[in-house]
Structures
1.
Amino acid sequence: MSNTVKKIKVGIAGGAGYTGGELIRILLNHPFVEIEFILSKSNAGNYIHSVHADLLGETDLKFSSQLNDTIDVLFLCMGHGDSKKFLELNPIQPSIRIIDLSQDFRLSDNSSFQNRQFIYGLPELNKQKIQNAKDIANPGCFATAIELSLLPLAKQQLIKEDIHVSGITGSTGAGQSFSETSHFSWRNNNISAYKILEHQHLSEITESLKGLQSNLKNKVNFIPYRGNFSRGILVTSYLKTNLQLNEAKKLYDEYYLDHPFTVVTSTTLHLKQVVNTNKCLLYLEKHEDTLVIISAIDNLLKGASGQAVHNMNLMFGLEETMGLKLKATAF
């Protein structure tokens, strides 16, 4: 792609949180993006690096308190429920595309809003729809890791038993707002389960699987854990199947052949291989009649801001890996 291509003008609402900070970091280094404003009323007038210290020396941009309509796309990096409220209070021109990182518009029942139709933004599931979309609902972080573990099976109508999933996430998965369980003295040398079998991402996981396997009646039983590390998600999914391991590996390789960020590996994986990348790594094992799928992502990138940029690339006809060729911080 030529460097003479017109740059995409971007606005970011909710730029002071973790996902906002990661989005800014990526977009500052994206060759076809120009950041027009970063909205944060509580930080308006302050330098971006006063909140995101990792950007000191990278930009002299300041937070803004004002929206403007000179942009091509608006990223909403807000808490769940807040994106809808924001759009109700701040009407956005129909010509401006929206990529929302909250869960407000992910499900089909709430994907229509203010004459907008939000498409579920998992490229490995909806690439063609995303390329033709005006508005995107970015998937949840756990949902991304779990769906990528199971989509190839659903496409072949092979989920015939209940699915059991456990997954652990770093402290950044809880957002930047202070809580008892994000305090260092609580997290350090500690681990706990939460939202057992009731995690908010279960609805979008089930809907995505049914989009490929419409007759799916089996449950996804999910137990998430809080980990004592900062970022990343490691998920183990397993179910009973007659599929042999070599057949399963072939099925996964074929499904993800044209998806550059999802990699099926034949060697056991670990979390540091994906931290600071937009990759999802998948590893399969078979034990008697049980297929085990392990997946790993960075919750702030493939599970949030990196995937949002991937969606933007697809929407604007750019090479989908543009600005996202990031090396893992493996040591």
2.
Amino acid sequence: MNIENLDIRPSIKINGKLNIVIQVDDSHANYLTEMVEAFNNGQNIDCKIELTSKKKTLNANGYLWQLCHKIAVKVGNITKEDVYRQAIKERGIFEQREIENIEAFNEKWDNIGVGFFTEKVSPGIYNSYYGSSIYNRKELSAVIDYVVEEAKEQGIETMTIDEQKELLNLVKE
């Protein structure tokens, strides 16, 4: 699981080692509580904290949701979440997994966010889609491009390509 916007602060030194305090949004509390309980029960926990670069901006994410809403209103009988999930399915990130108990998996997976869902490919094999909250700028750009195409098909006004690039603050890699 990727958790963004952590608040990490140095705490105190004990036995020459620096302790840190990590604060997260309430939406991740259950997941982290499970990890702490597992650790306290003797399980090893693998945790990676790293610097990230070129992440999406909130404005880009806001634009994505704005277009999803406009498409849903124009089409009718669908929600902005339906439009968003379709965009994730078409241009987003997923992993194909063998899952024995899909109900138990979905109970946790779906609770991460709107874009985290599964789709059955064959018996026991599922595509597990990741929501855009974990995407970098390039990945988010692909999803936004898809939604922009859909909006244009519906006659909905969108930003120009240059405005989109500025919004995403893309840098050539």
